[in-house]
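User: Sequence recovery, please. Input:
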């Protein structure tokens, strides 16, 4: 089977569809004693495995499965979780027949009934605005659409109701508050009217969505200063190239000087990249909840420009990457400096994982995201990929984000994000800067810690507190 071809020749692989009404199945792996075929199949795959899976999942994951065929250690120690779909129904009665006998009707409150398409019987589903188990009496619970911006059409204030929600505008503005409606218009009080509608700069930059999100996080709004476009243009001399501190996949960072003579760093996202809006909002929300001496401080943002702008404290001595990867130049960082930078970085990550109101997973720890001040103090930066972590969960499933080389392999293969993903990236960072320096016993201690933290199985890695204590 080739990674782009889901059909099999029968030698080295095979597949078949599952017929309807099947209630049991049996799998058997066997290699026939045919030397020609044996040599051929051995060249194709060193591992044999069989599984039942959902057709759509198999179609989209065929290249991934094909590339794993010779990864014996990973298949044995980690494995692959394969989803299946159980096609079932409450048999022998239609919805109409079942509903006529309430004592025998299986659907709970806030549900609807649908006749089975696979033989006689029926299925229960939660009505729109509810989710849960439709077969329990109170199994379908109200969905709070206001908790997730993608689940509602509000541009400003979202209010949840039973089975639905409604939108409104903040004080001082008017309209229906909806993206598919009139949006919100700020009332004029001696200033030009700012219309907030689909396509407006404030909406494009997530301004009202950001306001809504910050309002739901205690203390968020009071710590974020809103800068005007004119202020930041003056600060960077109209985005002059001489003010550029760095450029990357997410945009450009400029050095700026505010009217009060403060030096700041101004991050400008890429033009036309809508995914940057979500990262912009995410980074603001994350950083308004953090106060740590080794984590970059967000001073404010600008919502008037075509692309979002974030304003940070200025950290004067570049990135750790620039110091340890200088071309043909010896780094000025001593062993003691590097050891202290590692300790300061681990203390920042331990704080994110265990000392904030909700745990925060950074997801992109690398040397380019560790800033250094004049005394080589470490400052962790770039929270665009970070995630708030529910207190009652040890892992969440999410789209894989991060930088190859630093990326946790278990997270990459399973999409299961845990705090141990940061632990892996941290130790890759340590390995990249502790090279051929220090006393033998110190190097040995760092190497032993790295070995534990780089374990393929996340559950066998120490926590960041454990790394910090080591």
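Assistant: Recovered sequence (470 residues):
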């Amino acid at each position: 089977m080739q990674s782009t071809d889901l059909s099999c020749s029968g030698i080295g692989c095979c597949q078949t569809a599952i017929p309807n009404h099947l209630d049991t199945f049996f799998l058997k792996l066997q290699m026939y004693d045919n030397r020609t075929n044996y040599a051929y199949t051995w060249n194709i795959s060193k591992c044999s495995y069989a599984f039942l899976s959902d057709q759509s999942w198999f179609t989209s994951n065929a290249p991934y499965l094909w590339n794993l065929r010779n990864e014996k250690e990973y298949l044995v120690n980690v494995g692959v979780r394969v989803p299946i779909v159980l096609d079932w129904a409450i048999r022998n009665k239609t919805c109409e027949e079942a509903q006529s006998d309430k004592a025998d009707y299986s659907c709970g409150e806030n549900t609807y009934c649908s006749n089975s398409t696979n033989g006689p019987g029926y299925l229960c589903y939660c009505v729109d605005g509810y989710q849960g188990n439709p077969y329990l009496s109170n199994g379908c619970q109200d969905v709070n659409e206001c908790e997730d911006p993608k689940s509602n059409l509000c541009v400003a204030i979202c209010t949840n109701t039973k089975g639905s929600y409604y939108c409104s505008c903040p004080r001082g503005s008017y309209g229906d508050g909806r993206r598919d409606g009139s949006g919100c218009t700020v009332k004029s009080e001696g200033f030009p009217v700012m219309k907030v509608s689909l396509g407006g700069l404030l909406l494009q930059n997530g301004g009202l969505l950001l306001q809504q999100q910050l309002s739901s996080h205690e203390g968020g709004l009071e710590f974020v200063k809103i800068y005007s476009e004119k202020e930041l243009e003056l600060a960077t001399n109209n985005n002059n190239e001489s003010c550029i501190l760095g450029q990357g996949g997410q945009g450009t960072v400029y050095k700026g000087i505010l009217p009060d003579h403060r030096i700041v760093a101004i991050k400008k996202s890429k033009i036309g990249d809508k995914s940057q809006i979500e990262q912009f909002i995410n980074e603001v929300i994350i950083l308004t909840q953090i106060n740590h001496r080794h984590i970059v401080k967000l001073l404010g943002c600008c919502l008037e420009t075509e692309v979002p702008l974030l304003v940070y404290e200025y950290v004067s001595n570049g990135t750790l990457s620039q110091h340890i990867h200088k071309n043909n130049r010896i780094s000025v960082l001593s062993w003691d400096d590097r050891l202290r930078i590692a300790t300061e970085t681990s203390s920042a990550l331990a704080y994110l994982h265990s000392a904030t109101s909700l745990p925060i997973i950074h997801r992109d720890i690398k040397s380019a995201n560790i800033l250094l001040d004049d005394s080589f103090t470490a400052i962790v930066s770039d929270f665009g990929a970070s995630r708030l972590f529910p207190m009652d969960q040890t892992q969440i499933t999410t789209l894989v984000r991060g930088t190859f080389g630093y990326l946790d392999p278990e997270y990459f293969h399973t999409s299961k994000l845990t705090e141990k993903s940061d632990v892996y990236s941290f130790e890759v960072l340590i390995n990249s800067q502790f090279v051929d320096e220090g006393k033998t016993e110190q190097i040995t201690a760092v190497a032993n810690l790295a070995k534990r933290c780089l374990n393929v199985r996340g559950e066998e890695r120490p926590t960041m507190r454990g790394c910090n204590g080591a």
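Residues 1-5, 188-201, 218-222 have pLDDT under 50 and may be disordered.
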